Task: structure prediction
Amino acid sequence: MAWVSNRLCTKSLSLVALGAYGLVPVTYAQEPETVEHQALRPSIFAELRYDDNIFRSAVDELASLVTILSPGVLAVMKPGRHRLQLGYRGEFGTYAQSSADNYDDHEIQAAALLELGRRGLLDLSVSFEDGHEQRGTGLSEGLGTDPGTFLSEPDEFNQAQFVSRFTYGATGTKGRLVFDAGRRELEYSNNRERTRFFDYDHTYGGTTFYFRVMPSTSLLFGVQADDFDYKVDRGLQPSLDSREHRVDFGATWEITGKSTGTVRSGYIDKTYDDGARPGFSGPNWSADVRWSLRSDSHLDFATSRYPSEITSFTGDVIDNTKYSVAWNHRWTGRIITRLSALQSRQEFRGAVEARTDTFNQHGLALLYGMRRWLEWEFALSIGSQDSNIDRFDFDLNVVSLRANMTF
Result:
């Protein structure tokens, strides 16, 4: 079941807050083997985090302890060969040194996995999120801590999403077709004198054809079209409404005990409704590969290049490139360690101030499964951003202790 949770996460926040709900896709407890038709699964994630630069500031950094409590519940029903899910996840954060940054986020999701005969599989998901962006990230990057320019509260947003996927092709057949379509509606709910210019709707549709060339390997060919519609014009600036078209080729494989992965590479073209904006075109790619050194030790590699919508008042598009590697090792039945490194680069195309940010992060995590229902996680993250514009430079260290309870 594909639970899609494309949270509006900013680069810095999503890279360094290890393990916090809302910064990664939603995950719930594994379904007990004894449950055949329905189940109700509550969960609680609790985290104590020390962040030495909560505003991602170049100067005058403010450190704080952050306490996060994230309760959730997932209801699962299995009528016949189908699967239905309804879930809720909340996240409540408290800053010891900055009460203005306390927050409560909520997300509701519903999903259905429907088997349509022997060859058809329909996966549907709808979600609504009431969330926020940490001050100093997202739309408030680089504002600094000066009282005349800094926000008095974090930016808050509402986001609704619908995602659908239809797969045609029985398991083991030579060919398989996958059709994807969805819509995302983003609207900020406060600081409207600034945030209203970043409200937009994103609609997309595409298809991918998989052709099996070996028992565990398939080649793929995909096309996709995206439409971005901004709700408020930026005064005298050209409209940001745009269309994207992409085509890619690649391969996917799963060699039991050795390697799994998907690699795609292609070309993307972004054009704006207003010809005054030059648009963007170039190669895009994505790769996620796991190499198993042995059954309890894995190396994960990932890289991607893609455009994203602008988060500054000037500019057309952000050109993103990311590389990451992680080593996961299970030492015993209860203890797992994870070492990771990541580099991301963002180039703000068309901005009045030519801007390029490079972010580097290194992480260490130790997971201890104390009980079937209780897992402890200790994580350390060291990150730094280097930009050609000084106010976007920052360093930070994040240490966190987390308890994951799933019942």
About this structure: The mean pLDDT is 90. The domain at 11-117+135-156+234-243+264-406 is CATH 2.40.160 (Porin). The chain has two helices and 18 strands. The helical segments are 11-16, 192-195.
